[in-house]
Amino acid sequence: MVTAHVQPGVLDGAALRADFPVFDRPHRTGRPLSFLDSAASSQKPRVVIDAVADAYAHHYANVHRGIYELSEDATQRFEVARDALARFIGAPSTREVIFVRNATEAINLVAYSWGRTNLHAGDLILATEMEHHANLVPWQQLAAATGASVEYVAITDDGHLDLDDLRARLARGPRLLAVTHVSNALGTINPIAEISRMAHEAGALVLLDAAQSLPHMPVDVAALDVDFAVLSGHKMLGPSGIGALWGRRDLLDAMPPFMTGGNMITRVTLDGADWNEVPWKFEAGTPAIAEAAGLAAAIDYLEGIGMAKVRAHERFLFDHACAALSDMPGIRFLGPDDSDEHAGVISFVVDGVHPHDVATILDGEGIAVRAGHHCAQPVMLRYDLPATTRASFSVYNDLDDIVRLTDAIRVTQRTFGIA
Amino acid sequence: MDNLYRDFILEHYRAPHNHGALDPHDLAFADSNPTCGDEMSMTLVLDASKQRVTDVAFDGRGCAISQASASIMTDELRGMTLAEVREMDPRSVVANLGVPIGAARLKCALLGYKVLQGAVTGAATHWPDEADVLQQGSVS
I want to staple B22 with a disulfide (CB 3.0 to 4.6 A). Which of A98, A244, A383, B43 is the partner? Predict the structure, then answer.
């Protein structure tokens, strides 16, 4: 039995919950909300909500357009947000950070722009069996359009990427490896620096899906030595509707625009147009201006806590959840059991109870979890499961959430007459 | 939700009626629930006129709601004409569960209905419109 008290080096989840207005919302059960679905989308601290409102109330005009004070103010704040994000992810240059709607759009940008320019019939793209659909379907579509093919690096039984399989497939000369930093369905943290080194030695570029890692641990794209990285603001305590692509400047410079229109040009005639420089070449139309302010506030909030502390906190929660679930009969969880290799995402199965039924009963206890295939159906297929129940952690969770989770799983088992 | 897992539902889940596959059969269809990936198949045997259901079975794994709903629905099918099956109201399928079904679990409750409609029309059908079904379909 775990005792709820604050450990050295671990965050005070209850105190941090006070920063998030959603926890003031009454749940129909009368119980406080236990929010264990941050891997789908995180909650927002008041500072983020206020920053979005402040951008609209006091700093709003279109960016990169108007020759007047308010537009200059809006533009400057938008570019400050880009600076903050560049620093947060370790980008060598702010100009390499492109604002898009979300990680999905960022991957599509690379697939369309880099992919359709550089890939030809017979070329090979590597993805992995643990990718989110967002990092699978765009490559399948790219392959269908170009005549290239896609292969998938296997997962081991205990939820690791099979590096021997990766090595064998890299030997066949793929042009690009699309790989997630953290599996949203398994929780596995992949050894990206090692994977990048292997891929580069084989001549492949590396696109990193950092949507599940950036909100939860220190991430430095330069140190990981990847070529592209993608992220979503809404998973990192920021607003929905804004995300980013980071890419190496030489690659971005050589890529054609993805979408075309205003802002991304330097000169337009009725015969054609000249493209603006990066990042604006890839930012056609009015961007998510207020959301950028919110994202900057989210980064500021996370940096105020410290990403190493965020990681230590979520690791502590995973270790306790792992120990508690391991002690319960009829419960299995996916992915590595070593918290060195496992982020704050725990995907589990209650024998004899469908994950949807688990989630419904947990909801009746005031606990929000995800049930389903987590947009990673190949992972479910790999383990011959239709779906799992997934609990995922953020800064506002603590040991009380884990006690409630395990109690509610016991309620589920009792309801179904198991154990 | 508090009354969702009544004994009635759980009994159908543990021991579903009309479970399995009929071979030979006249009609067969399979479909899935996109939110969870659950797959269900259904086989039907018709009478000599090929217009009336004489036997039915469903197969697949799923949640308590989808299994109980298919179990209860298939109990009603024997003797119905194909025209009557096509005219079935999805709201009655949900109502026959006898427990409150919200939007989050509606596809679970209607998976069997969708597979059945695919079997009798010969092609995958659209999911019934959520607003139409929930307006009158859920009972308290």
Answer: B43
Instruction: Please state, in angstroms and as integers, the Cα–Cα distance from residue B111 to each residue in A95, A174, A352, A392, B4, following that order.
Output: 49, 41, 20, 28, 17
Which whole number is the average pLDDT over A346-364? 96
Specify if B99 maps to a domain. Answer: yes
What secondary structure letter does DSSP report for A32? P
Known catalytic residue at A375: yes
Is B139 domain-assigned? no
CB of B39 within 8 Å of any CB in chain A?
yes
Please state, in angstroms and rounded to a whole number, the distance separating the CA atoms of residues B139 and B98: 7
Predicted ipTM > 0.95: no
Indicate if the pLDDT at residue A10 is higher than 90.
no
B7 and A CB contact within 8 Å: no
**Cβ neighbours of residue A77 closer than 8 Å, sequence gap 6 or more:** A55, A59, A292, A293, A296
Residue B61 lies in a domain: yes
CA dist list (Å): A149 to A111, A121, A396, B4, B60: 13, 8, 43, 47, 33
- Do the domain assignments include residue B1? no
CATH of the domain at B107: 3.90.1010.10
**Inter-chain residue contact A415 with B65, CB threshold 8 Å:** no
pTM: 0.93
Q: What is the mean pLDDT of residues A211-226?
A: 98
User: Domains of chain A (ranges plus CATH)?
Assistant: 13-41+306-415 (3.90.1150.10), 49-303 (3.40.640.10)
* Total number of domains in chain B: 1
- N- to C-terminal Cα separation, chain A: 19
Per-residue pLDDT band for B136 (boundaries 50, 70, 90) equals low
Convert the pLDDT of each residue in B82-118 to its tens digit. 999 999 999 999 999 999 898 889 999 999 999 999 9
Is A115 an 8 Å CB contact of chain B?
A: no
